[in-house]
Task: inverse folding
């Protein structure tokens, strides 16, 4: 007769692929906890705001040749290229923001009189350029780039 095997005191053979009960569930739990911790750590890093563009620097690079360093378009090149005088109060009163935004993005006369910047600026950036730069320009006050904007020279 065979003796019954006492399963509670029997050692697991060393070279078998038999897993202990619950090992698979425990591995799933550890993996799930690791994934959750990783997601919590990565989420704030990916939620950063986009880098703010230096619109005054953009103005200096793209608009000064026609509109002048202060927006008055009184330079020889500004008069020759017929740049709009942003400091003219009459023009300021008679021009709507949405029209200026459209001109900044689309340009004037198919890009021949003024290039469009729809590939460079977003609609919000063009609106900010109108409200923060064009509407606030004053004769004799240079529109200088902002200091300390990351990614700008």
Result:
């Amino acid at each position: 007769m065979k003796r019954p095997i006492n399963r509670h005191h029997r050692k697991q053979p060393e070279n078998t692929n038999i897993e202990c009960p619950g090992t698979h569930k425990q591995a799933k739990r550890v993996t799930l906890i690791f994934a959750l911790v990783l997601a919590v750590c990565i989420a704030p890093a990916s939620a950063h705001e986009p880098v703010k563009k230096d619109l005054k620097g953009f103005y200096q690079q793209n608009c000064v040749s026609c509109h002048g360093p202060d927006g008055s378009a009184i330079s020889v090149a500004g008069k020759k290229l017929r740049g709009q005088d942003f400091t003219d109060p009459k023009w300021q009163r008679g021009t709507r923001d949405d029209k200026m935004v459209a001109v900044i993005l689309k340009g004037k006369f198919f890009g021949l009189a003024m290039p469009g910047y729809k590939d460079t600026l977003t609609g919000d950036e063009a609106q900010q350029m109108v409200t923060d730069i064009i509407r606030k320009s004053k004769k004799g006050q240079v529109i200088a780039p902002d200091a300390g904007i990351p990614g700008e020279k």
In short: Residues 55-134 form a domain with the Cytochrome Bc1 Complex; Chain D, domain 2 fold (CATH 1.10.760.10). Confidence is low (pLDDT under 50) at residues 149-153. The chain is about 45% helix and 0% strand. The two ends are 91 Å apart (CA to CA).
